[in-house]
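Support request, please re-run this one:
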Amino acid sequence: MATDLSVGMRAAGSLAAIASDHASPQDRAAAVLAELKSLIPLEAAEIIALDPFTGDPMMLATHGYSPQVLDDLHSAEFFQLMEFLDLPETGRATRMKDLPGDPLDNWAVSDVLLPAGYREGLTMSLRTSDGRFVGVINLSTTDPQHPSDLAKDVLTQLCTALGNMADPLRSRGWVTSLLGSTAMAVGLDAHGRAIALPGVPKHDLLHEDAELMNVARKSARMKSWSSFVWPGDTEFFRVRVLPCTAEASVTTLVSLDSIDLGPLTHRELEVLTLAAEGLSNNEISEALVVSHRTVATHVEHILDKIQAPNRAAAAAYALREGLILGKVQRHDLSH
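Re-run finished. Output below.
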């Protein structure tokens, strides 16, 4: 037992050092899986991060799993199962034997892992030090005795370290690569000053004194990511405001990329934005200085174009799709 404990302590120290290294997330994840083999007789394993924009899995490192098993582990059904077990909220390492009830009643066990030859394993959500769910580690063995209780405890203690390692928003370079080749971006420092990002183009709308940047600064004070639409001279842009804790000089990333509003006009987007804020048709007509009939017509057109049954559904659609204008030129309702 003393030997097992010393092995566990050594592995825990090595894993913590790897997770906090300055190498790329992919290199550190691969090193974590290699080190885990000294603690667990792994047949297969993976570490994934979650795209902060879409929630889609992004592979950091993998070993042993077939493409089909990986597809199942990355499916919506698997993440729904994790949520049912409250894993994203707790960061609790969970083995087959830890599942409530009969493990064979669990879809991932009976239909995915056992048919692939795995007899035990472990899943753990990776959470950052500020509590965000940013990734997952999955481990599988053919030995039903592993992962042991000691290995489970070691991984549980490392949940935050591994979460910080996997967090896309800790790496400015990785965040900007996630934005895509057409995106433009600047950083904000702790005082809200704009900072150019090397190799990343920026737009006139992202200049220090631009109106959009003032809106972005207000959003950045909330310390959570946000998304809204902003009008340019000839096109519309999606604006994303993201916390970025990787470097002390950059606390927030403000990105800009072109967006297609689809069938909606600028005026309809203004009406939809105000409706999503909870304004009535009368209040919208006052805010935009147009007639009540005009607003009612816009609302009818919006519902028809996005195939929403009512205003509430249209507002939910706008919030879900990020079709909220960052600014609406409105008349002051207090006068």
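The domain at 181-258 is CATH 3.30.450.20 (Beta-Lactamase). The chain has a mean pLDDT of 86.
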